């Protein structure tokens, strides 16, 4: 799936953020009245980043029958989040619609802030025909955030999810390099998921490998959730980070096979799957190497308890390297939130 991100550091970026979000809302075929709400909420989020934040970013993520707008930054954070939701609250004497107004305009709203570190705000709008995420029937919620490398207009990282019977497959891809060719490699890999969502992760990666030989190649992570078995199966190639967090707070890194999809078979390596139990309180985080691995689930459980899209935005905003394409995908059991 595609998305877009914009660094917001000056007033001109507020207008650009509004245009970006409104365009995505129209492409998602949201009603005109909803497009207006998306645009107004995005203006407020971007204005807050300009006024208060360091390294602010707006991320616009279309998803299955929904649109997410995420604002994330690296500080200074909000000391009293409940008070900041009150109408008329301002630390600079200005009167915008505020966070409380954004919450009323959105179908769903979430905020995570760590004082002294940063804030991530999620505003979500759903299509009129859908009140709940289509993945809810699988007992999971999925959220994502991505941004292109500086100076690029297309992101070489991509992700997707697809459903078939009692199987939900979620995948992440990092096309080699940057720009349109890297984006084409990632999208080609993700098309294999849509073509055969019930195929095993090993079969899917093999199909990507065969299809991508003429292209630049990519690193790929594939996870598959089985409702009836209450399991998650992972298989990956290359340097993506995948962490499974259990309900008791323990966590495990799921390790990929070294290599590059599209070139892996030449080296003789074979991707090896691993299967683990999946609980209502489980959380799975995947991200490309555009995001630092220097975060520990046990130390940031307060952040990981939020909506998966909020978690993805927070990881991207806080740990993004700001020199490469980056993508984060978070899958949460429905009992986590």
From TrEMBL:
Pfam families: HATPase_c_2 (PF13581), SpoIIE (PF07228). It comes from the Bacteria. Residues 135-333 form the PPM-type phosphatase domain. Gene3D superfamilies: Histidine kinase-like ATPase, C-terminal domain, PPM-type phosphatase domain. SUPFAM superfamilies: ATPase domain of HSP90 chaperone/DNA topoisomerase II/histidine kinase, PP2C-like. GO terms for molecular function: kinase activity. PANTHER family: PHOSPHOSERINE PHOSPHATASE RSBX. This is Anti-sigma regulatory factor (Ser/Thr protein kinase). It comes from Saccharomonospora azurea NA-128.
């Amino acid at each position: 799936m595609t998305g877009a991100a914009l660094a917001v550091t000056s007033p001109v970026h507020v207008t650009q953020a509004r245009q970006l979000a409104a365009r995505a809302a129209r492409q998602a075929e949201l009603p005109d009245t909803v497009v207006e709400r998306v645009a107004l909420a995005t203006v407020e989020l971007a204005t807050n980043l300009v006024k208060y934040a360091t390294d602010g970013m707006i991320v616009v993520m279309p998803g299955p029958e929904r649109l997410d707008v995420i604002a994330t930054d690296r500080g200074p954070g909000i000391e009293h989040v409940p008070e900041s939701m009150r109408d008329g609250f301002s630390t600079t004497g200005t009167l915008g619609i505020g966070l409380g107004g954004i919450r009323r305009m959105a179908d769903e709203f979430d905020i995570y802030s760590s004082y002294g570190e940063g804030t991530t705000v999620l505003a979500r709008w759903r299509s009129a025909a859908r009140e709940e995420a289509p993945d809810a029937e699988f007992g999971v919620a999925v959220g994502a955030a991505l941004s292109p490398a500086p100076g690029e207009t297309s992101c070489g990282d991509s992700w997707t999810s697809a459903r078939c019977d009692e199987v939900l497959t979620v995948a992440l891809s990092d096309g080699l390099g940057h720009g349109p060719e890297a984006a084409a490699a990632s999208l080609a890999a993700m098309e294999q998921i849509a073509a055969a969502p019930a195929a095993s992760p090993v079969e899917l990666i093999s199909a990507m490998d065969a299809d991508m030989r003429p292209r630049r190649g990519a690193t790929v992570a594939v996870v598959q959730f089985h409702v009836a078995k209450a399991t998650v199966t992972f298989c990956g190639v290359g340097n993506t980070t995948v962490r499974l967090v259990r309900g008791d707070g323990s966590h495990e890194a799921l390790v990929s096979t070294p290599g590059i999809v599209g070139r892996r078979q030449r080296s003789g390596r074979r991707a090896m799957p691993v299967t683990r139990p999946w609980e209502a309180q489980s959380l799975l985080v995947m991200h490309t190497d555009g995001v630092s691995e220097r975060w520990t689930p046990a130390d940031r459980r307060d952040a990981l308890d939020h909506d998966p899209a909020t978690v993805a935005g927070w990881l991207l905003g806080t740990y993004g390297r700001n020199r490469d394409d980056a993508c984060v995908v978070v899958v949460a059991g429905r009992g986590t939130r």
